[in-house]
Specification:
heterodimer; A: 274 residues; MetI-like fold; B: 303 residues; 0% strand
Chain lengths: 274, 303
């Protein structure tokens, strides 16, 4: 009796705020299932009046070639994540556990570059890609996505925890550095690789400005660019646009829900230290 | 005596291997970050435009002219003001939402804290362009849910995206919605690190819940708050997709941000030298603001 009032109040407030937070996403899904014109009419409806209709998804995939944009997004996100993980895990491990001259100074220099906002390098990088003939290519987009220090930072922080004795013992046994990395270090790095992988995949999936700038062929558009493009022509078709938004947001959201433990850990690791 | 050469050999091979391990990442960073970074500064000092895109020889060195032109351009000051409004509005709102949410989620009275944390964080991982499209419909003066909800409490319909002032608020609200979960998660961790003993000692002294909040929790959270403030500020300064999708920077550049201006100059009008200068101005702004925030904190704790 004494404590129930505050408990109720707090949880009611939390529930209300959670509802507010998630409302746009819920409406997006609901509107995508409404009949044409239903979402932009009065009286306002929260749910489809009739049975949910997949008509707009059909239009997206059959007539508007959205499947291709989905495939492009998937391909690019996977490619960027794969290349990124490989390069960053090796570099992060090297900074953490391998001894060489200038190691800490070089690392400090790399960390310092984190302060440069991406806007500064966007234009000259675009020009550079032009010179290299990589404009309007997937390679161009991938290349822009892998040059980050954040991943190296994360892996290094984590790899610092690997016991030196383990590695030294393997060295004394005559194992090469590559072999040590492949058979001992990599399995130990799995948690952070999952974290970095989720991070990188979501960042690549959600990236808008870079694919917008590099890709000029409509057939190469990723989902964010395709959605922006679609909104130009089909702005009146609310339900269709919501379906497009769902297709774009759902995979990322689902991936996050499945692996949120790793994603949140990545933020905290990257943040608390930085 | 014979152990030393062997150790030295191992050291050398380890160093060699290290560079091999570093090579891919360093190559990518060197090629696609360092070179553009150097090029950016150079670019901002030239009149690189559409003609130079065709033939490099058309670009001329013009010194600080791009920067001077910016200072003299009223559009630049409008855009600067817009961006500062986004920051001044958006950062405190985000902080309050994040801290408030964290305090509630972390409270011992809360049920299902993990679920709430997930829900509050979800907007952060949504694709910005897609949700901006959704929010554009939510802001519709007649058919949008937001005006509908406001109507239920007696507030008249607002032309969210049509009126310059309201458009700024609209974009800011979207940015806050998408960002506060990030700060919330960090604050929750910060709350978890406050030593329990402090609260126990305060209880013994007879302190109530609100007193503990004011005298223990908030002061202990100051470093975390600074950290979140810096992170959010840097992000809001770079705001781009929200105005691009919702208003295209309109009406009449009333919602154009610095990054959007840079994008327009660089990729619509191909004034790349000018755009590069804008990017550096943004960089300088972010540096100064971050420095100020950190300095304020140092000064605050020095007392």
């Amino acid at each position: 009796m004494r404590r129930t009032a505050p408990v109720l109040a707090l949880n009611a407030a939390l529930a209300f705020l959670a509802l507010l937070t998630v409302a746009p996403i819920l409406w997006m899904v609901s509107a995508s299932l409404m009949a044409s014109g239903e979402a932009a009419s009065l009286p306002l409806r929260l749910l489809p009046a009739a049975a949910p209709s997949l008509e707009h998804y059909r239009v997206l995939f059959a007539r508007l070639d959205f499947a291709r944009a989905l495939g492009n997004s998937l391909f690019l996100a996977v490619a960027i994540t794969g290349v990124s993980l490989l390069a960053n895990s090796m570099a992060g491990y090297a900074f953490a556990k391998l001894r060489f001259r200038g190691r800490d100074r070089l690392f400090a220099l790399l960390v310092a570059t984190l302060i440069v906002p991406p806007q500064v390098t966007v234009l000259p990088l675009f020009l550079e890609l032009r010179v290299l003939g990589l404009v309007n290519t997937f390679t161009g987009v991938i290349v822009a996505g892998i040059a980050t220090v954040f991943g190296i930072f994360l892996v290094r922080q984590f790899a610092l925890g690997i016991p030196d004795d383990l590695l030294d013992a393997a060295r004394i046994d005559g194992a090469s550095e590559l072999r040590i990395y492949w058979t001992i270090v990599l399995p130990l790095l799995r948690p952070i690789l999952l974290t970095l992988g989720v991070f990188t995949f979501l960042a690549a999936w959600n990236d808008f400005m870079w694919p917008l700038i590099v890709l000029t062929d409509e057939s190469k558009y990723t989902l964010p660019v395709a959605v922006a493009n679609l909104s130009g022509e089909h702005v009146q078709d609310t339900e269709l646009m919501m379906a497009a938004a769902v297709v774009t947001v759902a995979p990322a959201l689902l991936l996050f829900l499945a692996l949120q433990r790793y994603y949140v850990r990545g933020i905290l690791m990257g943040g608390v230290k930085g | 005596m014979t152990a030393v050469p062997a150790a030295a050999r191992r050291e050398r091979s380890e160093a060699r291997a290290a560079w091999g391990f570093l090579a891919p990442a360093l190559a990518a960073i060197g090629l696609f970050f360092a070179i553009p970074l150097a090029g950016a500064l150079l670019l901002s000092l030239t009149d690189f435009d559409i003609y130079a895109v065709a033939d490099l020889g058309n670009a001329r060195f013009v010194g600080l002219r791009n920067y001077l032109r910016l200072v003299a351009d009223p559009l630049f000051w409008t855009v600067l003001r817009n961006t500062l409004v986004f920051v001044v509005l958006g950062v405190p709102l985000t902080l309050i939402a994040a801290l408030g949410g964290a305090l509630m989620v972390h409270s011992s009275l809360a049920r299902l804290p993990g679920l709430y944390r997930t829900v509050f964080f979800a907007p952060v991982v949504t694709t910005l362009v897609a949700v901006a499209v959704v929010w554009r419909y939510l802001y519709h003066p007649r058919f949008g849910l937001i005006n509908h909800g406001l109507g239920l409490v007696g507030i008249g319909p607002i032309d969210w995206l049509g009126e310059p002032g309201w458009a700024m608020v609209a974009i800011t609200l979207l940015a806050v919605w998408r960002t506060f979960g990030y700060g919330l998660v960090i604050f929750v961790v910060g709350l978890e690190t406050v030593p329990e003993s402090l609260y126990e000692a305060a209880s013994l002294d007879g302190a109530g819940r609100w007193q503990k909040l004011r005298d223990i929790t908030l002061p202990q959270l100051k470093p975390t708050a600074l950290f979140v403030a810096v992170l959010v500020t840097v992000q809001v300064f770079q705001i781009f997709a929200e105005p691009y999708v919702m208003t295209r920077g309109g009406p009449l550049h009333a919602t154009t941000s610095i990054t959007l201006l840079m994008y327009e100059q660089g990729f619509r009008w191909w004034n790349m030298g000018q755009a590069a200068a804008i990017a550096f101005v943004l960089f300088a702004l972010i540096l100064v603001t971050t420095g100020l925030q950190v300095a304020l904190r140092r000064w605050g704790s020095g007392r």
